[in-house]
Amino acid sequence: MGxxxxxxxxxxxxxxxxxxxxxxxxxxxxNQQAVAMFGNDPVGRPFVTVLRQPFVVQAVDWVLxxxxxxxxVPDPALPTVPEGVVTLRAQFAADGRDIVAEVTVAPLxxxxxxxxxxxxxxxxxxxxxxxxxxxxxxxxxxxxxxPLTGMIGFIETLxxxxxxxxxxxxxxxxxxxxxxxxxxxxxxxxxxxxxxQAEERRRPSGQVDLASLLQGVLAMMTPRAEEAxxxxxxxxxxxxxxxxxxxxxxxxxxxxxxxxxIKYGAAGNEVGIxxxxxxxxxxxxxxxxxxAISDQGEGIEEQHLPRLTERFYRVDTHRARAQGGTGxxxxxxxxIVNRHRGRLRIESTRGEGSRFxxxxxEGLARG
Length: 367
What we know:
Blueprint lengths: L1 H11 L5 E4 L5 E4 L1 H7 L15 H11 L21 E9 L2 E11 L8 E7 L1 H36 L6 H34 L7 E3 H18 L3 E5 L6 E3 L2 H18 L5 E12 L4 E10 L21 H6 L6 H11 L3 E7 L3 E9 L6
Helix pairs in contact: 4-5, 5-9, 6-7, 7-9
């Protein structure tokens, strides 16, 4: 019993999930982090029933008895470890989710008895971040390569077969100008997204008059709506609404959402902007102001709604590109709203239109 207490005390001082097994590979101790990760207290169970990953089980068998078990193949991507210790990458289900982890199996310190320790470092967050980075680079490359490939083809044509064809030259130049403009907007949005993400943890220090800000946005966007055959109907902008915020970023949010409502609204219908106070918004834990921007267009199918704020996600890729969209607008909106400690709600019914609601706190609590 004294040896087991010493082993348990040793594991409790380790800040990552850690188990200890005896010579028969039965778990004899586990710290609180390991219990939280693997669920029910694993002490007393064979290790193979705790972490069902063949490579990890093989590593435990080898550390316990190097002469009787085959040596694991080291992973060259992982740090070098001392002789008799094994570090490997493993993926398994635990704590109700899939975990990508770095598992280190080492002999139990001789003062604590004979056996092995298994330390599990959860690398899931880093793996997800790396996957997001790879996806982002791939998406940006695709978004830039497609128009660039087309422009190169037009240039080659203009230098060759269409050298003296004035009509073809004008048509190709128009297309090249449009594609160059889309690439310029893409780069601008990428820079904007980068700035917004860099500032996301820093709360706005200024104050804005939400009603006045929206009136300014509407003054810019109403002519565009009228050109598209849409009426803009605004409610709740008569009185000043003071709240914490970055005026430039909030202007960008509402320009983007109103522009989308104009793009996807049906001619002859309305684009609605409604501002209302919420006495208590549970998610904000206090009062707030809701700005709802609605259109009466085709609407969005329900399965697309959770992914609309993902970078480069488009419901209709061809239509979005034809209208000059970069696929980053709603992602920028989401990050700006997050910076303001607000919420973005998206509701849509196919055939009836969509409503995007930005909820901003009336005041920013500390903490």
